[in-house]
Amino acid sequence: MNPVQKSLVGGGIAASLLLFIYLAATQSMMQPVLLLIGLALGFTLFHARFGFTSAFRRMMSVGNGQAMRAHMLMLAAAVTLFAPILAFGISFFGADIAGYVSPVGVSLIVGSFLFGIGMQLGGGCASGTLYSIGGGRTVMFITLLFFIVGATVGAYHLPFWTEELPAFEPISLATSTGLGYGGAWALSIALFGLIAWITLIVEKRKNAPKMAPLPTEHGWKRIFRGSWPLFTAAIILAVLNALTLMTRGTPWGITSAFALWGSKVADFLGFDVAQWGYWQGANATALESSIFADSTTVLNFGVILGAFIASALGGLFKFTKITLGNFSASVIGGLLMGYGARLAFGCNIGAYFGGIASFSMHGYIWGIMALGGTFLALYLRPLFGLSVPKSNDSVC
């Protein structure tokens, strides 16, 4: 194991503490609480290397479904926690509780497919981009920059996709079908079990390689240094998402903050952002307020800082090399993810994780279309010098 990067750990803790104090002094108490949740999310994501991009790529390229089964466990835990929270409106700060339930239409299908391509080119999904930045992966700063650009353009175009093109009304397994939250929970658990079983069948038929083990400590030291089991992280992420729901009234999300950041920059440059359809109604307040009043922004900062502290504790923080290939892929991938996330009402966190946890049909459609985009991207990655796992490789 690498030695602890003590100065970086101290700097990360100091930055987190200062941000906590600033939020407590200038915002509602909800914001510093969300910062703590974000720190825990980033810490968990980094330690488990809990990926969505890599999970989809392993499944589509060599048939390895270990990470996909971790997804199913995470979703099973999430729906178990979300069901009573949504049914009874359980809240810490008195916020109205609402899951992510969005329409199923052309916008969702196109957006999630684009996101699937983008995350395989950009080197990470929305959560992966944030925790990789926390770990010092240099090219992900490029991905994030163009993620923000894509999300901003997507926000500008969103009224066309949602108002001019066909879509079904939002479909909730709990409230649109008559199943109620109990029935929707049972159906969801059955679906997760079926998907996990299918991944096992695919692995057996393809004789898929196993994921390469990552270095780790033992005993209590493993909390701070080394890799965590995927299944452990799956449970923790579900609990943290439920805490987010009870704290701010909606589940964990990431990419709406990117659209906000980019729109504020565009406004500063002279664009009449306030007239965009995306920033009308309820969204107008966010555009006019400080970014520190935006709960998703605070969560994002927490994820980056939490991953930074985790990487430094493991002695793993370091800036990495940028090549022409991965730079180009990051630009294209970031643009596709940002644009696709706005069209699809969220990313791998807001639409896939948060949508399915909220019993929304759009979350399942998002996952299917993102897998389709991943399959296409397997043929695009070598054009940028990016690797694709082979059947005789160990998968890492």
Number of domains: 1
Mean pLDDT figure? 94
What is the CA-atom radius of gyration, in angstroms?
20 Å
Content of β-strand = under 5%
Number of E-type strands? 2
Order of helices and strands: HHHHEHHHEHHHHHHHH
**Helix proportion of residues, in percent?**
55-70%
Shape category = globular
Taking the sheet with the most strands, its summary is: 2 strands, antiparallel
Main location: membrane
Protein name: YeeE/YedE family protein
Membrane topology: Multi-pass membrane protein
Family: Belongs to the TsuA/YedE (TC 9.B.102) family.
Question: What are its keywords?
Answer:
396 residues; mainly alpha; two-stranded antiparallel ribbon; 15 helices; disordered C terminus; transmembrane helix; Sulf_transp_TsuA/YedE; cell inner membrane; transport; cell membrane
Report on this model:
This protein has 396 residues and is an all-alpha fold. The chain has one domain. It contains 15 helices and two strands. It has a two-stranded antiparallel ribbon with strand order 1-2. It holds the Pfam family Sulf_transp. Belongs to the TsuA/YedE (TC 9.B.102) family. It is found in: Cell inner membrane.
Write the layout of secondary structure elements.
Layout: H1 6-26, H2 30-48, H3 53-62, H4 66-88, E1 104-105, H5 106-122, H6 126-134, H7 139-164, E2 167-168, H8 180-206, H9 230-248, H10 255-268, H11 284-288, H12 295-313, H13 324-343, H14 348-357, H15 361-380
Antiparallel strand pairs: 1-2
Helix pairs in contact: 1-2, 1-12, 2-6, 2-9, 2-12, 3-15, 4-8, 4-9, 5-13, 5-15, 6-7, 6-12, 7-10, 7-13, 14-15
